[in-house]
Design brief:
alpha+beta; 16 helices; methyltransferase
Length: about 700
């Protein structure tokens, strides 16, 4: 009877829920009074006080239920289960994993404790319903004191059907960023810290300032915060402290830096202090910037102009090295707070990005940290590949490049202009360079049972449609001209978008997606494409996915894409003999002699209200220099079209030359195709975020990351 009553309550509106809960508790209390008449010794005043408190707890419970539904889509229930949600006991309001574990384990053995980052609630699953019910009765409405700050909070608890939260996709370090652990010994750390006199030389010429967020001291040259630059003609007396020389010699010897720095900024942060997000001024310093963390570990936040953020734990005595994209494009800063959210299992031990692993997050109290940041003062204008965020290159005329998409509509327009239109224009030329199947894809197709139904999503010119004659293969592609080429080869293919394939769900034994998903411009669209592949598969069916890799040099081996950099003279001959094996990801143009070496990358406005970040311009996608390593995950890759000229449009730069001239063999219309190149582990992590598939295998193949999925 009681279970039916509770189930009835679950389906009520908010107001009705509150009334029903009050009625439920009132009747439960009345029954208890009948059974336990000896307990009715409370005074009328005490009784009213208890009733008032119960009503308050009920209101808070219902409010917590609606908060949970709004934030996580999880519905609370009224009957007892193994799983509880505990409001006011989250990382977001100062409850550490260690303290919550101690509170909860008093009532039984726990299977799971999940603490979402920056949320004021946590989830716990006990081994038995009885243990969970015991914790509910003991802790609901109970006041506890947060250990670190002494603040009193009241816990509000509800039952949930199950504890299940999706972890965030693991993140990689920003390109060009490196962290070296234990670069110095504790004794070296002690001596370096003692060498900085924060009190005794305030009147000396060495610049020492107490800023709002930290204490700062400069050596070699003073960094001027009024103009964010250095006065290169006024070096500070004394240069860099001598005690830094052994450390810098070690960095030079190990290859962490190429030139010895001549400027040092020492920052000291107390708990609760930080530094606003920023990029170091391009014209002030050279590419390499290194920072040594002393005294305590801390989490530093890096942010790409597209909004992507990476939180990195910098251990004590570690060295942060920023070069390339991480130095010039990403902002870095330290959020002013007294606690960092970190992985509990790696506390104080390992460099890593902080991900939303809700089963392993805790709070780490900050301590006083001192950083030694070394730079090399620049003596000539900066000529980096990010001109529109470079103060040395401001005002220079450069071709306008497309912006990174900020919403679904912009993403669709970007792909239409810099993927779909481009492949329609270059289809014939593109097809002439795509004729050698890759061995591991051939192996996958030949391993399938005879009679299998296989869909090639993004089939291009149909290179893989005729590999195994025992299969029933059908292809589809967004380019009509490429599909027409498939038809000329007597393959079955049709035009469609990989986001919406008109094939019945569960009808395919296998699917392949070769060099397709990296053309989708947002993480949501890339995930949706993989989800669509899974929809086509029957249970037990498999899918093979290839995407272009950020790492074009892997395990000390250069990819064929990089190896072919100097082979342009032989490319035409190789193509005519049909022996060349092109990079799988259709990334390389046939003629790379006119590679685009420029990019126009503006930043979108960055707004960080908590840290007062200064807004900057909007983002433009950089143009990649062909046959070179990548410096950005999102970029435009040139394709030099052979033969004829084209009108200048958004995705093509016109090059007009006399027909038959020598220049006409070297210069050609240059189209730009959008790519998102995948970091190691990124594709696998995206696939694992889908509950309907499992990753059978993941591997690296000639500059591409690859996975084989199985439909569950």
């Amino acid at each position: 009877m009681m279970i039916k009553e509770r189930n009835r309550i679950d389906n009520c509106s908010w107001a009705v829920q509150l009334y029903c809960w009050e009625d439920f508790w009132q009747r439960r209390e009345d029954t208890s009074k009948i059974q336990n008449t000896s307990m009715e010794t409370e005074t009328s005043e005490d009784h009213l006080k208890v009733q008032k408190m119960k009503k308050k707890v009920l209101r808070k419970q219902v409010r917590a239920q609606h908060t949970l539904m709004r934030h996580e889509g999880i519905k609370c229930i009224s009957h007892a289960t193994q799983s509880l949600v505990i409001a006011n006991a989250g990382l977001g309001n100062g409850m550490s994993r260690q303290q919550l574990l101690r509170i909860l384990e008093e009532y039984g053995a726990m299977e799971t404790l999940l603490m979402p980052p920056n949320k004021p609630y946590s989830f716990v699953k006990y081994r038995t319903t009885e243990e969970a019910n015991k914790a509910f009765n003991a802790l609901n409405g109970k006041e506890v004191t947060l250990e670190d700050c002494g603040q009193k909070i009241v816990l509000y608890i509800n039952f949930v059907e199950k504890v299940s939260l999706q972890n965030a996709v693991p993140t990689s370090l920003p390109p060009g960023l490196m962290v070296i652990e234990k670069i110095i010994s504790p004794e070296e750390e002690r001596r370096m810290l003692e060498s900085i006199d924060w009190k005794g030389d305030e009147d000396t010429q060495n610049a020492q300032k107490t800023l709002k967020h930290r204490r700062v001291k400069h050596f070699g040259y003073e960094f001027r915060y009024d103009n964010n630059n250095v006065d290169k003609d006024k070096p500070l007396p004394g240069g860099l402290p001598e005690i830094c020389n052994p450390f810098l010699e070690k960095c030079l010897k190990q290859g962490y830096i190429k030139h010895k720095p001549d400027q040092l900024t020492v920052n000291q942060y107390e708990p609760g202090q930080g530094i606003p997000p920023h990029t170091d001024t391009h014209s002030a310093f050279e590419d390499e910037i290194i920072s040594l963390s002393l005294g305590a570990e801390i989490v530093m936040d890096f942010k790409h102009p597209d909004g992507h953020t990476v939180a990195i734990l910098l251990p004590r005595c570690s060295l942060l090295v920023m070069t390339g994209e991480s130095r010039y494009l990403w902002t870095h800063g330290i959020t002013p707070r007294k606690y960092d959210v970190i992985q509990a299992s790696e506390l104080g031990h390992k460099v890593r990005t902080i991900t939303a692993d809700v089963g392993d997050l805790t709070l780490n109290r900050r301590e006083t940290r001192t950083s030694f940041t070394f730079r090399k003062v620049r003596r000539s204008p900066c000529n980096c590949i990010y001109p529109s965020v470079c103060d040395s290159q401001k005002g220079q005329q450069r071709p306008v490049q497309p912006s990174f998409p900020q919403n679904e509509m912009e993403a669709s327009k970007l792909e239409q202009e810099y993927v779909h239109k481009v492949y329609e224009e270059i289809a014939t030329h593109f097809s002439s360079t795509r004729h050698s199947p890759w061995p591991q894809i051939v192996e996958f197709l030949r391993s399938l049972p005879a009679g299998s139904i296989v869909a090639d999503i993004g089939c291009g010119n149909g290179k893989y449609l005729g590999i195994n004659k025992d299969l029933y293969m059908v292809g589809c592609d967004r380019s009509k001209n490429l599909v027409d080429i498939c038809g000329e080869k007597h393959f079955q293919a049709f035009v469609c978008d990989a986001l919406s394939v008109p094939i019945r769900s569960g009808s395919c034994d296998a699917c392949i997606s070769i060099a397709v998903i990296h053309h989708f411009s947002t993480a949501e669209r890339r995930l949706a494409t993989i989800r669509e592949l899974a929809r086509l598969l029957r249970p037990g069916g498999t899918a093979l996915i290839y995407v272009w890799a950020m790492e074009q040099e892997y395990k000390n081996q250069k990819s064929k894409y990089l190896k072919e950099k100097n082979d342009s003279k032989n490319k035409d001959k190789e193509m005519n003999t049909g022996t060349t094996q092109r990079p799988l990801s259709d990334q390389g143009p046939v003629n790379s002699s006119q590679d685009s070496a420029w990019s126009d990358q503006l930043l979108k406005d960055l707004k960080d209200e908590s840290c007062g970040a200064k807004p900057v311009a909007d983002l433009r996608l950089p143009v990649h220099t062909n046959r070179t390593s990548f410096h950005s995950q999102d970029l435009l890759v040139p394709w030099h079209l052979k033969g004829g000229t084209k009108k200048k449009e958004g995705s093509v730069d016109t090059v007009l030359v006399p027909g038959g001239s020598k220049e006409s063999q070297e210069l050609s219309p240059v189209f730009h195709r959008y790519y998102h190149v995948f970091c190691e582990g990124e594709l696998e992590a995206v696939c694992r975020s889908l509950d309907c598939v499992r990753v059978q295998k993941s591997y690296y193949d000639q500059g591409n990351w690859c996975v084989i999925l199985e439909k569950l």
